[in-house]
Design brief:
The protein has 198 residues and is mainly alpha-helical. It has helices spanning 3-30, 37-44, 48-54, 58-81, 87-104, 106-115, 119-124, 132-146, 156-177, 185-196. Helices cover 76% and strands 0% of the residues. The mean pLDDT is 87.
Amino acid sequence: MTLKHKIRSRVEETKREIILDAVSDYFETVGFSEPKMQDIAKAVGISVGALYKLFPSKEELFFAYIGHQIELFHRRLLQLCEGEEDPERCLVLYIQLKFSTFASKRKAIEDPVIGDPLFFVKMNTRQINPAAPIFDFLARQFEKLAAKKRLKTANYMKTGYLLNGATMGYIEYWLNFGGELEEKAEEVFERFMNGIEA
């Protein structure tokens, strides 16, 4: 790749990230279901054509928004656990961060997730899974935890996926029925550990 192509690629990436930051603010205020691509383009200050050039459909834009949020989540998770030696603490921090993130983005995710219970399954089975680094993080924590406690399985990646599924169950219940979410991290972790400890 020539220097010219590298510069153009970097500019496109930066533009995409800036637009996704603006789209994030918009979705988290207005929601996803109601606005059309024209409304979104106007809100973020670009032409409809430019928006479609980057994101061929509203669904693609939403998947890009979710992927962007997952990247931000992963960075924040690594910051929270930097220097933390206790894997249990890191796993609780993961749950707390996940719950607080979803609570702050309820308006953006409520309709797509409630309207499509398999939304996150579809997200995770796309060609590029933006959540892969988070699952790697969870697998490492369970591997460290296994040095201190006997777990029912040595498949730490599977255990990470199971924890993700358990937390999503709480989130989906909260989206449908309300109640407290952010205060449940310790409880969720304890219940999960009861199921996986040998």
